[in-house]
Amino acid sequence: MACGNLLDLNDCSVEEWIGLINLANDIYVNPRDYIHRCDGRVLATLFYEPSTRTQMSFQAAMLRLGGQIIGFDNPVNSSVSKGETLMDTMQIVSNYADIMVIRHPQEGAARAASLYSTSPVINAGDGGHLHPTQTLTDLVTLSMTKGTLSGLHIGVCGDLKYGRTVHSLLKAMSRFPGNRFTFISTPELALPAYCKNLLNAAGCPFEEVPSIEDCIGDLELLYMTRIQAERFSSKEAYEKQRGVFILTEEKMKAARSNLAVLHPLPRVDEIEAAVDRDPRALYFTQAKLGMYGRMALILRMLEDDIVIHSERDYRLTENSCPNPHCITHLERKLPHNVCKGQDGEDICLYCETKY
Amino acid sequence: MACGNLLDLNDCSVEEWIGLINLANDIYVNPRDYIHRCDGRVLATLFYEPSTRTQMSFQAAMLRLGGQIIGFDNPVNSSVSKGETLMDTMQIVSNYADIMVIRHPQEGAARAASLYSTSPVINAGDGGHLHPTQTLTDLVTLSMTKGTLSGLHIGVCGDLKYGRTVHSLLKAMSRFPGNRFTFISTPELALPAYCKNLLNAAGCPFEEVPSIEDCIGDLELLYMTRIQAERFSSKEAYEKQRGVFILTEEKMKAARSNLAVLHPLPRVDEIEAAVDRDPRALYFTQAKLGMYGRMALILRMLEDDIVIHSERDYRLTENSCPNPHCITHLERKLPHNVCKGQDGEDICLYCETKY
Amino acid sequence: MACGNLLDLNDCSVEEWIGLINLANDIYVNPRDYIHRCDGRVLATLFYEPSTRTQMSFQAAMLRLGGQIIGFDNPVNSSVSKGETLMDTMQIVSNYADIMVIRHPQEGAARAASLYSTSPVINAGDGGHLHPTQTLTDLVTLSMTKGTLSGLHIGVCGDLKYGRTVHSLLKAMSRFPGNRFTFISTPELALPAYCKNLLNAAGCPFEEVPSIEDCIGDLELLYMTRIQAERFSSKEAYEKQRGVFILTEEKMKAARSNLAVLHPLPRVDEIEAAVDRDPRALYFTQAKLGMYGRMALILRMLEDDIVIHSERDYRLTENSCPNPHCITHLERKLPHNVCKGQDGEDICLYCETKY
To answer: In this structure, are A77 and A141 located in the same domain?
Structure first.
């Protein structure tokens, strides 16, 4: 696998991101030039938890490149229900397909899968850990709709504590110059310290405010996410506070004309349906452009001219990963491998939790 | 959407029906001429309730035109289970696909879907409301096997009260000259008044008889449908009467040599298996020809040379639709829109129930 | 259907097997020559019980020949749940597809299906009865990795009583000269008498030993299968004995350098994961080559230059099949047909059980 896997967007360089974004843009503009580029190739979507939109986005991407698709969307229909391990499934199915897309509820599942696959693996979400093609979607959308990834004032609203798409977006946008952030959340769902450290290290200014109204007039991007009711301390706290984090037509009146509203979707209540008609509401455009980002990624990975340095040095350990959501606790035969984290500490190879 | 949607077959003119039937016939005779007509195009089948035959018929139709397919057949595997609305799903998935086929248990769901889709929508059945490609299938079959859609004596047997395919067939056949009808059912499951009014208005003679034997000798078409046990007043009434509405080899002896027996399928007990061998039993041929009808429809809708006038003037109302099976009662964020019915009364835009 | 169906591998001659194996090998070596051979053709996979690997193997096979796929993998999503019979489903779906692959939990289901299908049918497993493409996979793998199907010392380990893949493999390998067998199992799960009779009739020497260590040093092929815990007389017997039938790295040390280890997969515990790294472990290669075997089969069946004599003379009987797992007990409208067995006795046409 010269081209490696796409497990974590940070395994690619910023130059590779730009290459993917430019390719996505070219496919968007000239789709007919690409309709036979993956003729005779097969993509497998192995969805160990359902995610219709993500799966259909990958499927449509492959089909529009001339390739074909196999896969499953329901673990109870798979050999998993006969006790087959993820490792064996990967070793078998990677013989049928040229490229694999895996979605799994456990953290680290995509890296585990990649160790046993003979075809390149794309991580389409591994529990609360990573979802790199969502971040790629965000980058493609910003680049194609705003024309730049730099010098933006970015508001992020909702569950900033648990939202993996938020953490990935910050990490990605902090690598471009001149971006600054405003975070809108409750104290309980505020951005974790490690994200703040990351922004500080990157020299990105940020502030925290309690409501959308406090910042919307100055933002170029407002990234909305869902707050689940169960994240609040009580039902009363939820009912009292939820309105604060809902984007309404009324609040949009104070926003700049060049604001872009994004949302990773699915949306529940956090953006009023009336906002959909606002030309600054770009979340459905974002879903569309995500397909082009995935087309660019599949094409690059299959055509082998992208080298993603996803391999890591690791060693076996006797201890179990302390993260109860790690794939190693579900797939008991996976070796307990650790690698070195950023500060030289031992972290789980799969879910990157500190041992 | 220059070409509009196919929500109700009556949105097309009789000339457009004939065009579709002729195209279906040409595809049937010269299938190799059509195998690349939809190259690079994607059809999505969004089946909110399973209907394997209908879904496979659409899928095979698109694949035989060179197109590709995505979709789902099980709502619990879809983002719906995360609370995504039908409206959002349509806005997202219509970015991935060039044409959408929707099946839904609630009445009016297809029209609701079409309001939010950026690609044309085909109604593949919305609860007890409409199922226009079934009627198209019936028309294609009659035209290709009998050579005409006019001057026929048509018997319809089974549940005439609730059977939406029966109502659609009557509506369609009443638009061709010289057809007359004989209805075979129980008093409880007799044809509703609005259908009789429609036939009277169209000048189509009809009569009602209590058994198949009473009319089979004079029919050119016998359209069989299922009577569900639960439609009878009691289990005893069901057991006593069911045999009357079963087509047997014995009863076929009295039929004309040019009789065509159709059935929308699936069949349960209402046609004896022995009848399958009779050359006049055309229900499996009908299933086959339905695929060609759907090929013609997809092709016309994608190639944009059919204009279906499916848009209607409507306005928002404060009241809820009185039909408990209307999509508005499941999808609570849908605006309560009403339009004008045939007599100028307010009807629900989606399910067409009188307010 | 000039080409017939593939219901039982023994309906083909050894020459036809060799033809399929050679074709599979040619596709493996020159895949680009075959990518348009099934353009415009459709394969349906009707999986009445889930078997992800088998289904994906067939799907990838068809797609890599340029064909397309439809189908279902879950009976509750199919029209079956509305009471449609297998016979009706076959009569309908065979209009949509050029070739049908059926998997069903009941014995004899594939033959029943073939009687009602207008397209050729491939049996992808009918309960405990037959699974001919698994045996084809085994033959392709042996031929391509060992270069011969003759003169081999073959060990077979595991559940030899109930394992249908084992019985088929023996039947197939006994038709090539010079093969001899060693069986490794518990007395309770020993090879049934009819298999021993078959080997004796074919002049194949065989012996039975209690452990892998007793024979591994002399084998050219070790065919591993799973022993299900519930097959043992008690939980204690299982715990005491299971280790005996597990292939370990340690046991592999005594094996010949030209040993091939095969397994029909999925594997549970019967082969230690550490053995996977041994170059003699060919079970994942076997899964890969199975796809090429299926490509060869689909191509031959669609191109009509293979004539499989799958038709049998049969007559209707009044009695029910004595096998409770026979398809006739689930599909009550299937006629009770019997044909003549090898010794002239009446056997069920579908599941081949003696009446």
So the answer is: no
Residue B277 sits at the chain C interface (C-beta within 8 Å): no
Write out chain B residues lying below 8 Å of C80, CB-based: 52
Nearest CA in chain C to B59: C70
Compute the distance between CA of residue A56 and CA of residue B71 in angstroms, rounded to an integer: 7
Q: Quick one: CA torsion of B242, B243, B247, B249, rounded to 10 degrees?
A: 160
Q: Are A188 and A233 in contact (CB under 8 A)?
A: yes
ipTM: 0.92
Q: Are residues C322 and C206 in the same domain?
A: no
* C36 touches B: beta carbon within 8 Å: no
3-state SS, residue A264: coil
The whole domain housing A47 covers 9-131+289-302
What Å distances lie between residue C304 and A7, C93, C210, CA to CA? 45, 20, 47
Q: Is B273 on the interface with C (CB under 8 A)?
A: yes
Asked whether residue B320 falls in the same domain as residue B182, the answer is no
Coil, strand or helix: which one is A21?
A: helix
Cα B38 versus chain centre, distance: 24
Distance (Å, whole) CA B241 – CA A194: 74
Contacts of A124 in chain B (CB under 8 A): none
C-alpha span between A34 and A19 (Å, rounded): 16
Amino acid A251 reads K
Q: Helix or strand or coil: residue B333?
A: coil
Provide the 10 A C-beta neighbour count for residue C344.
Answer: 7
Whether residues C259 and C137 share a domain: the answer is yes
pTM confidence score: 0.94
Alpha carbon distance C266, C262 (integer Å): 12
Amino acid B17 reads: W
**C-alpha angle B84/B89/B94, rounded to 5°?**
170
At A229-285, the pLDDT tens digits run 777 778 887 887 778 899 999 999 999 999 999 999 999 889 999 999 999 999 999
Helices B86-93 and A52-64 cross at an angle (nearest 10°) of: 20
How far apart, in whole angstroms, are the C-alpha atoms of residue B188 and residue A313? Answer: 76
Alpha-carbon distance of A291 to A65, in angstroms, equals 11
Other Cβ atoms within 10 Å of A198 Cβ, number: 17
Task: Check residue C273 and report its DSSP letter.
Answer: G
Question: Is residue A3 in some structural domain?
Answer: no
Residue C355 lies in a domain: no
Q: What is the separation of C-alpha C347 from the centre of its chain, rounded to a whole number of angstroms?
A: 21
Note whether B22 and B168 are same-domain residues. Answer: no
Residues in chain B within 8 Å Cβ distance of C42: 60, 63-64
Beta bridge pairs of residue C326: C107
Closest CA to A300 of A122, A93, A55, A147: A122
The secondary element (H helix, E strand) that includes residue C261 is: strand C260-262
On whether both B261 and B326 belong to a single domain, the answer is no
> What confidence tens digit (pLDDT) does each residue in C200-259 have?
999 999 999 999 999 999 999 999 998 877 777 788 878 877 788 999 999 999 999 999
